[in-house]
Specification:
Blueprint lengths: L7 E4 L5 H12 L3 E6 L4 H12 L4 E5 L5 H15 L4 E4 L14 H29 L3 E6 L12 H21 L4 E8 L8 H5 L1 H9 L9 H12 L10 E4 L3 H7 L1
Parallel strand pairs: 1-2, 1-4, 2-3, 4-5, 5-6, 6-7
Helix pairs in contact: 1-8, 3-4, 4-5
The chain binds 1,4-dihydronicotinamide adenine dinucleotide and beta-D-glucopyranose.
């Protein structure tokens, strides 16, 4: 029996990067997967095919998770696709690099609405379903080492991930009696399109690598492996915390 036999997982922002790796890993471990993105393009089509080739079902829901009405509809549509939803991975996220004094309200809203507000109301829709069906569930939020350590020039991003830290602590407590577990995964620097500029600029990359004891970027699959553990029954006593996958970055950074 596979880890996620008869389970359905929804992974937001899963056309590329960490979200795509999570979708593939959950499918490899037996889940049927609902993918999400703001548009369905070739990457989404390829993922559907790859998951189907593993013998699992895949469905793509177009939704902008920064919009409350969209995110609620996405969760309800996900439940309707195969009549159940067991695992919600809130992965979609954005960052904006800007000096604090130049950050616009538009940038702030985009970051906070995507990384915090959309997650808040997405979880709420999932919890309402779990309550109505009298069933448990698992929520995993893609946070960041920056829920804990500073990231100058990314103030809104840090605020959003810091907010996610407390949201998870609070919800884990409130939802434990409903048998719903909530945890955060906090990646360090992972080789995905979000880090395109970093990976293409040797000076920036070297600065980052100096702060990582393992001296390399992580792979999206490293993050997906942790997500799969937290989503599984192996983690049935695990809730309300953050798990770092960062090559040692967080505590090295604190030491400086
Ligand atoms: P990425 O930029 O490669 O992928 C993010 C995905 O989310 C993209 O497919 C994007 O289209 C989608 N997305 C963004 N806004 C959306 C919206 N409003 N609605 C639906 N989809 C949306 O980034 P990556 O690296 O895969 O990041 C995934 C998550 O991991 C993010 O929450 C990010 O903050 C977090 N993270 C990433 C790290 C890294 O070094 N790559 C480190 C720490 C955290
Ligand atoms: C950010 C990346 C950054 C990493 C390590 C992540 O949260 O999205 O841009 O490289 O943290 O600082």
């Amino acid at each position: 029996m596979t880890r996620f036999e008869n389970k359905v997982a929804l992974v937001t922002g899963s056309s590329q990067g960490i979200g795509a790796a999570c979708a593939l890993r959950l499918a490899a471990d037996g889940a049927d997967v609902i993918l999400n993105g703001r548009t369905l393009d070739e990457r989404g089509e390829d993922l559907i095919k790859e998951i189907n080739d593993m013998g699992r079902k895949a469905h793509f829901l177009v939704a902008d998770v920064s919009q409350t009405s969209n995110v609620v509809k996405m969760v309800n549509d996900a439940i309707a696709v195969w009549g159940q939803l067991d695992i919600l991975v809130n992965n979609a996220g954005v960052e904006k690099n800007n000096d604090f004094w130049n950050v616009t309200e538009e940038e702030y809203d985009l970051v906070m609405d995507t990384n915090l507000k959309g997650i808040f109301f997405g979880i709420q829709a999932f919890v309402k379903y779990c309550m109505a069906q009298k069933r448990g569930g698992v929520v995993i939020n893609m946070s960041s080492v920056h829920e804990e350590i500073i990231f100058p020039h990314f103030a809104a991003y840090c605020a959003s991930k810091g907010g996610l830290k407390m949201l998870t602590r609070n919800l884990a407590t409130e939802l434990a009696p409903l048998n719903i577990r909530v945890n955060n995964v906090a990646p360090g620097a992972i080789a995905t399109p979000i880090n395109k500029k970093l990976m293409e600029t040797p000076e920036l990359l070297n600065n980052v690598l100096e702060n990582i004891p393992m001296r390399k970027l992580g792979e999206p699959e490293d993050v997906a492996a942790l997500v799969a553990f937290l989503a599984s029954n192996d983690a049935k006593y695990v809730t309300g915390s953050t798990y770092f996958v960062d090559g040692g970055l967080t505590y090295h950074y604190e030491e400086q």
